[in-house]
Amino acid sequence: MTAQIVLDVFLVDESYPPVSLAYKARRLRLEGKNWALHAKHEEWDVSLGELLQKYLIRPFQMLATPICLLMSIYASFVYGILYTNLESFCIEFQKIRGWGTVVGNLPFIALLIGIFFAGAVNIFNNTYYFNQFKVNGNKPVPEA
């Protein structure tokens, strides 16, 4: 998948219309030596205030809404449990049971096998859903 993304970056043309028009305007500027040609997309000027508003102030404003606050608290709780669980593997097997460093980390192989198994199930489910999607006339199939 990573290889596909890298190939896309270098081989797929830009399809966002304002950016395509900006490329065309730049090409026409260079070919015709008319430096007044420009696209509307190129007129956008970014100020420091806009950047601060978008990337610093707006996230905190969103965090003040109840749904974002509750989802953030829930996600932090879930990630905290996950991190604590993963960190406790080494403590359990190395310090409490007295296993060595290498042998104490072997239980992570079970986690790796589970990740590969889940990936295979996901690929199978995606193939099944795509087939159901085609059978249904290219319309989304609920609970397929």
Outline the structure in words.
One of its GO terms (cellular component) is plasma membrane. GO terms for molecular function: transmembrane transporter activity. Keywords: Membrane, Transmembrane, Transmembrane helix. It is found in: Membrane. It is a multi-pass membrane protein. This protein is an all-alpha fold and 144 residues long. Helix content is 74%, strand content 0%. The protein is built from six helices and no strands. The longest helix is centred in the middle third of the chain and has 31 residues. The relative contact order is 0.04.
Number of helices: 6
**Count of DSSP strands:** 0
Write down the secondary-structure element order. Answer: HHHHHH
Terminal CA distance = 25 Å
| Radius of gyration over C-alpha positions, nearest whole angstrom | 26 Å
Q: Characterize the overall form.
A: extended
* Overall average residue pLDDT: 90
The main β sheet shows up as: none
Q: What is the percent of helical residues? A: over 70%
Low-confidence stretches: none
Subcellular location: Membrane
Transmembrane segments: 63-82, 102-124
GO molecular function, one term: transmembrane transporter activity
Membrane topology: Multi-pass membrane protein
